[in-house]
Amino acid sequence: MSVGLEHYLVVSTLLFALGLLGVILRRNLLVIYMSLELMLNAGNLALVAFSRFTGNLDGQVLVFFVITVAAAEVSVGLAIIVALYRKRQTAHVEDLTLMKL
Amino acid sequence: MNALPWLILFLPLLAAAAITLFTGRGRALSAGLSIGAVAAGFVLSLIFIGCEGWRPATGESAVSWLAVGSFQVDFGLHLDGLSLLMMLMVTGVAGVIHVYSWGYMRDDPGISRFFACLSLFTFSMLGVVLAGNFIELFIFWELVGVCSYLLIGYWYERPAAAEAGKKAFLTNRLGDFGFLLGILTVWVTLHSLNFHDLEHQLQANGQALGALTTLAGLLIFCGAVGKSAQFPLHVWLPDAMEGPTPVSALIHAATMVAAGVYMLCRVYFLLDEPARQVIGWIGGVTSILSAVIAVQQNDIKRILAYSTLSQLGMMVMGIGLQAQKEAMFHLTTHAFFKAVLFLGAGSVIVALHHEQDIWKMGGLRKKMPVTFWTFLAGTLALAGVPPFSGFYSKDSILAVAIARQNYALFALGAAVAALTTFYMFRLVYVVFLGKERGEVPGQAHESPSVMLWPLRLLAVFSIIGGFIGVENVYGRFFSPGMGEEGTLEQLLAPFREAPAAASFGLLAVALGYLGARALYAKSAKDPLPEKLGALSRAMQNGFYFDRFYQTTVIRFHDFLAALAAWIDRWIIGGGVRFTHGFTELSGRALRLVQTGNLQTYAFLFALGVALVLFLALRQ
Q1: Average pLDDT, chain B
Q2: Which end of chain B is more exposed for a tag (fewer CB within 10 A), N or C?
Q3: pTM above the 0.90 mark?
Q4: Chain A residue closest to B601 (CA)?
């Protein structure tokens, strides 16, 4: 059995859906954060797969950028979570409903 | 020389501004500024007339004030015999009354405010007199009304005074509305508001206004009806007596109420025959109506107020009879003798500690000789006894009525003359002669000389005012080229030229005097109410005009106001409240969506993206 584009895309979709479920359902901010990373990487996987099957390097270059930016984003996001935890002594989203009037 | 009239006009305004801004606490300084400004105005007027004569070379000096497209309004001074004479009269009488006010108002705490208003009034009145076009005239016209409002309500802590000021202002506004419409009519048809221009246009073509001639004349007359308190808008003037007595003398007898008559003389070329008919009859009706009412008034100032109404009616009647010069003559002499009467009344009122009911006075001749004699001079002049000034001016109007063969108006005028003599001698008998009624008149004493000298001065003018003669001064403004006559000929002229009018006038005076003497020379109280019954009560209440207006015009107006308030509250306001309520309700409903939970937002976001993708990729 040869592995085609569809297989990669199915895996990517599954990963993305898992990530989304994690974001929507998990309560802990850190876990939500990890789920977000999972979604990003699902996107990366799809890009790499497209790049491989169209013989074009553009997708791979884009993935490098995504990884770099994600790294920066993680550092900022973690810093915010730590600051939030220090302030409110919690990292659970139900307790962080300041946006409500 | 050209700057002099401008200086005369603006000096009182400067005084008013200086008093308001700087000398509010300096009582004597405020009074001095105000008196100085108007006295300087009088002296400068004399100098100007002495140098330039009654027909100055520069008939008009104007600066362009505003221009909207082709519509040009100048701010200019119209200088001819008519306005110069009025300028002299206004500054002269106002100056004398200013001095008197310093005595009359001496103990009042708000004297600076009083003099500021008085100066502002003098400025506005001079503006009315000197205005060169309708817009300017209208502005000063309204300013005069404002000053009148401020001064009637000068003792604003008294509800009656505040009400009277409001009534005067609103009634005047009613007339001014018609006046403004008249001005607009003239502007629309003739495209000019300058008096010179209009006169030239109408002299060149008498039908320039076309079908609107009568309407324009009557609308402009509406302004005079309000300001000169003619029937049916006469109701404000008697109430205006709530103001201080010098104000009544200056504004509500000598100058402001005469502005309507002056304005009609200024624009007499706009009035055609039907309009003059209406004007003559309105004047006549006002005159007889208020003379009858005056017979049964018991407040010394209200008697004089109704007398003023009656004399103003006489002047307006004169205008209706095409007797502008006679009306102006009567206006001038009336200013002198009515001022002296009001100031004399003020002197009495002060001496009796602000008692105004004539049936609580009596026997004041001995206590207040100067007031008595000057008041008597004013009374004789008003009644029309030769050779006092009132005789000549009133007789000249009656003579014109005969000459125009308008016997109905002549009869009205003669009846008014008889009634005038009657109620004035009733006043003199009750207040100055006879016995003292009660304690207060017994303790009265003569007023200080700062109040007596103005009385003496004005009394002299009301005696000799007729000598200047109607033809000598006024004839030249309205029909130049008339020969001048000597003083003696002037004095005899009424008997020589119109013996019927003069003899009927004298007969009326004699009748009025004999009637008053028979009824009031010895009576302790008024015998007329018992004899006349209901009629007397009607006269005391001014024929119930106030009550009539209260139940019709004002009630209708209140109904309209209530209706408008209802519409505003429930229809316009209801729309506003509905919008507000709907917005708030939907806001409350939508707020439930905002849970503040991060994951709800993330879920909705994902749902939204899925929806967009589904819609975009459906094809």
Answers
A1: 85
A2: C
A3: no
A4: A24
